[in-house]
Amino acid sequence: MIHCNPFYRPFWAVVIVYLFFIPLLLWSFPENYPSRKALEDLFTDPPQGASREASRIFPQEGEFPAVRFAVEKQRDSFYLLFLNERDLKFPQFGAGSYIIRRNLESGKIEQIKIFLKDDPDSFLRLFPDGSRSRLDLYLYGEQIYKSVPLPFPLLEFVAEPFSRIMDLTRDMIRWDLIFPREVSYKWELIKNLGEGYRDLLPNFLDADDGAMEFDGTYVRISDGTPLVSPGVNCSGYVKWIADSLYKTKTGRYLSLEELSQRHIDLRGNRWSNQLEWQRDPYFGLDWIRNAAVALLSLEGEAVGPEDGDVRNLPFFSYREDIGFPVERLSLLLYLLALENPGFFYFGSVNGPFGEDLVLRQHYHVAAFFPYLDEEGNLQVIILERARSTPLKEFQRYYKTEYLHLVKIEGFIPSEYPPFPGEKLNN
User: Fold this and answer.
1) Do 110 and 134 form a contact (C-beta atoms < 8 A)?
2) What is the predicted pLDDT for the residue at 424?
């Protein structure tokens, strides 16, 4: 049986608002090269004078954002900061901001750092490489490109548009994965769907081994006996989400028997097979796969237990029946939101479990609603048991574990299943 982690944080319910499709080009990269061009001498002037240049603000002009220029010294280097305005502030980690490092003694340009999104872990760095340059690119904390060659020295890029770097590396870097071309109404759909579920969390009570049966009663998953105090564990909560969609299309709720079906022929090994009935090490994986299959089957096509699995993504290698490292979840969800707009995910956390016999076990499940905001930044709603968990917190808590994901196509449910303690409306 699955073991869940009980976290709590209440939210008040709100009405889900569905937005209709309006095709739009996604925001263009906020170029600030006019301000860098205006201070071009600072990149070659003697460092003693350049490092004492006064701060100033360049006002917004046309399509170019307002920019704050400042100088910061640190040890043997000084930094020329060109920070784009964002909501009347000038964040250092804002998309399009440049940080140019020069050596205090020699005056040489040592590095150019350019932020790609409103995220401190999404940036590229340019380094000198003889008479040329090279580029490293990080996206949500992951280095996805390393030592990409550029045919010019760093000085050639300090006062030029960022688009020049893109043009020179177009055959080597998938810029479409970094700067989406269009806004999808399906991102707004997933946002509204996740927010709707999140805002209903105060209606849930926590109960170990608790879930809703097909008749609307709350029972123990292990034996089907009614709960004295109705509630859900993490798998019960994921079922409740699946039920809201399944009932909309079929008029009935899923049974615990359907979701508890074991697929021993598809996963496990000789060690786990010996403890299949004692430890139930793949309960979480079977549970989310069965939920995904039930929902995928709504389109009338025959699907197998693994057809909802997330397996193929750029920069990732899938581990069979294990998934992907939780520590890489930010980039993983970004790519999923980008490549599969309109889908959300059930995930099964797994890792070494037990004391007498340590065995990999799928011991916790959760729901993930990733989408890109109107400026191309990743946003995620994570719901587990009776709590909404911030992405970074989820990654910290399960940083050594893996996460297996299955995809679910999102749509607005016509009604919600009964909450713990409510009676089923017939």
Assistant:
1) no
2) 63
Average pLDDT over residues 117-129: 96
Strands 359-372 and 218-220: unpaired
If pLDDT is split at 50, 70 and 90, which confidence band does 319 have?
Answer: very high
Task: Tell me the C-alpha distance between 323 and 131, whole Å.
Answer: 43
The residue-averaged pLDDT of 93-108 equals 96
How far is 202 from 206, CA to CA, in rounded Å? 11
- Going from the C-alpha of 271 to that of each of 14, 27, 244, 401, the distances in angstroms are 47, 52, 37, 20
For residue 354, CA distances in Å to 235, 277, 281, 357, 398 come to 20, 15, 10, 6, 16
What number of CA atoms fall less than 13 Å from residue 210's CA on the CB side? Answer: 23
Backbone angles phi, psi at 248, to 5 degrees: -60, -35
Q: How many CB atoms lie within 10 A of CB 384?
A: 23
11 near 199, Cβ under 8 Å? yes
Closest to 147 in 3D by CA, of 173, 167, 121? 173
Helix axes 283-296, 234-250, angle to 10 degrees: 10
| pLDDT tens column, 367-378 | 999 999 988 999
**Residue labelled with tokens 């909501």:** 87
pLDDT digits (tens, 9 = 90+) for 20-46: 333 333 457 899 999 999 999 999 999
Residue 397 is encoded by which pair of tokens? 């808590």
Place of tokens 């939780």: 326
**Which pTM value belongs to this model?**
0.89
- The rounded distance, in Å, linking the Cα atoms of 59 and 95 is 17
